[in-house]
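Protein modeling request. Please complete all fields; requests missing the sequence field cannot be processed.
Requester role: graduate student
Desired output: 3D structure, token encoding
Chains: 1
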Amino acid sequence: IANISSKPIGEHWHYKAIDALAKLAIVEDRREEVVKIAQERMKSTDSWVSNSSTVLFTKWGTKEHHVKHFAPYLSDRGNKINHWILGTVYGKLGEYDDPALIKALIVRLLIREDAGHAQKALIAIGPATEDLLLAAMQNEPKIHKSAAAILKQVGTEKCIPVLERVELDTKNTFERRDIRAAREAVKARLAEG
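Delivered output (193 residues):
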């Protein structure tokens, strides 16, 4: 920690020390210090340093840290997370059912590079995603395919009428097919009990 925090933020060699720190077990009384270092280094223009710092922040940060940082960051479609670490970040975010993070993950369904990982995170969150996802689905046709895939896994009875309505309003044959399949899967899952 001392070696990382004693040097200027932009030094490339930091990524090795940060990677090593990310592999250590979390020490509660050092958590805030490590999270602060990670947040500072996430701003580095050196992609190795910023990527390593993002992984470190993802591991050592708490739900509160993640919501405070990732919800606004991911809500801006212009912000990027390196594709090498998407699985790590979204895998962690899939553990939280926070509405701000769910909204941010729904925004990421619009970004081709992020959509698959965001979809997995929303499925992992489960039915807590449903209301926000249904609202987004009615307002943003570009997420129909991803939203249908998510609801197919986690949708409840209340998504059925919305899926029916969106299916009728959708012009794209393939999207209609996906939405119908999601609706039928939810019905079948509910029938099984």
